[in-house]
Amino acid sequence: MATIREIAKASGFSIATVSRVLSGSENVTEETRKKILKVIKELDYRRSQSIKGSSFRGIGVLVPDLKADYYGMVAEGIEEVLLRNHFEMFLSTYRHSLEKERDALEEFFARKVDGVIVCTTYQDEDCLEKFIEAGIPVVAVDRENSELKMDIVTIDNYDSSLKIAKYLYDMGHRKVLHVEGLMEVYSARERKQAFMDFAQKKEDFEVTFIPASFDVKDGYIAIKKYLDKYGKNFTAGFFANDWMALGGIKALKEAGFNYPEDVSIVGFDDSPLAKYLYPSLTTIRQPVYEMGLNAAKLLIEKLEGKNESKVKRRVILPTNLIIRDSVRKI
Amino acid sequence: MATIREIAKASGFSIATVSRVLSGSENVTEETRKKILKVIKELDYRRSQSIKGSSFRGIGVLVPDLKADYYGMVAEGIEEVLLRNHFEMFLSTYRHSLEKERDALEEFFARKVDGVIVCTTYQDEDCLEKFIEAGIPVVAVDRENSELKMDIVTIDNYDSSLKIAKYLYDMGHRKVLHVEGLMEVYSARERKQAFMDFAQKKEDFEVTFIPASFDVKDGYIAIKKYLDKYGKNFTAGFFANDWMALGGIKALKEAGFNYPEDVSIVGFDDSPLAKYLYPSLTTIRQPVYEMGLNAAKLLIEKLEGKNESKVKRRVILPTNLIIRDSVRKI
Q1: Looking at domain A58-156+288-318, what is its CATH homologous superfamily?
Q2: CB contact under 8 A, B50 and A112
Q3: Is the ipTM of this complex over 0.90?
Q4: Contact B75 A91 (CB under 8 A)
Q5: What's the CATH superfamily of B58-156+288-317?
Q6: Is 50 exceeded by the pLDDT of residue A50?
Q7: Angle, CA of A21, A22 and A28, to the nearest 5°
Q8: A156 vs chain B: nearest CA distance in angstroms?
Q9: Tell me: the pLDDT tens digits for A204-219?
Q10: Banded pLDDT at A42 (limits 50, 70, 90)
Q11: At a CB cut-off of 8 Å and minimum separation 6, what does B128 contact?
């Protein structure tokens, strides 16, 4: 829609006059009204032509944030595929706010996007259902199984976390802290569950769980508070991501403990940070960029009708335990 | 534009038949042709209505990457303002490739975006000129003065870097390494120039410049190679960003040097990393999120005609030297 200012400029009338026409005021001559309405029609027509002419197709992409590297990499993967297929990426961040998450989805819906990719979102099943019912395909990244008819791209969080538990056990660790990710998030719950199950199977393996979110600050605070209260009564710490591990390492160092000498450390993600810490960080490598690529590919297949089957797909990408220098055999 | 498949589905004819109509083949009855053309018209009308109905307005945003935190934060700032003003953000990354940069801008142009925000781009003046000539406003982030009529949001890179040089000098450092950012990038050139000028003024201040790009890996390689060749004949290192400082610190530690005991370290940006390294990193804080906010505000002012003046605006946001624990007085 043209703005009042644009209409005034194009028609040669004042903003006040245009405003009167738009509000339906009677204080305008019939001739003026006609002229202004004609200009509006032309401006709108030109705009719609230009949009149609560019055969505009857009995909709404919703991520929690772009502050750290994780979702930026997912978005780069998505963009790569969308660009190649001449789709535009509408990117929205919801900053871990349920309200903003729902607003962003409503906005996508109102703008009639051709498809939606949602990453690590929370309580949005009803919003997503609206898209699916309207025939707009949805692909989710990093999400548990759902009743909704949408494809999902994820990693095996449970199995990845189990690899870490086993590795720490094999390296002789029996008393471990797990600084959790946000429990609203599926991947955080899975990572925790694997450690709980492993500890239940192995009688001599004890895990203390510390609630936290995924932020670097939370890793720092979790360890600082724990040390203040209980002292260093553990030999290893597993953090729900690499950034939290960085925060935890800082709290340990401030209290005079080094890694891996005094405490062994394991992260998750293999963010660029992990390799360049010294000592470098043992972690799980997630194929983050590929998760984005695959999500966009599934969506485009659906849009182009290449996926005729009505079966939901769950694509699980492989992870690797990257053993570096932050775990000591004891 | 509807796809052939959509047209086939809506009209009840086969893809082959639709295809024949679209290609102008004579192998179709007049009745079929009419029916299919009617469906195409309806589908296009519905699409144009839906786009017009949502008063769709989009801004193209071009950033080098989303891998690290810097441009993600800029993008979050831009999004905040666009969302509030009911603009959609089309985000493209150009991955530091001149070809992709130009492609992305061409794509924005073809899609008739309402405005463009470009961050830290290279040789694109002719592409940007096209937008400006077409009356599509452009705002640049982190860019030197230009002949083009576009607003620019930036920080004073020269002055910020000079603050670091003076601080290192005051702390007793006389032999300093500067690991440079990519010289194609305006901010990297400014940061280098300040150190060159300072060294020219102070006879007892010597700087060695090491060419590099902005990547963490480059910081590591720059220091590793330097140490291999010349040994540790410097007391401080200034890195063009915090991530490069992380890489440099790793190379120093591998060679048995600690900071700030053996070498003092200064970064740039105040990324989340800086605060959580141990010892924490002295750096320049850039108001990254605010740069995004301000760029989007300038653009929207222009789009809404609030900025009547034809004068280009250059908005320079303040920086701060954040003194932490990585520089030692000698």
Answers
A1: Response regulator (3.40.50.2300)
A2: yes
A3: no
A4: yes
A5: Response regulator (3.40.50.2300)
A6: no
A7: 10
A8: 23
A9: 999 999 999 999 999 9
A10: low
A11: B105, B116, B118, B138, B140, B148, B150
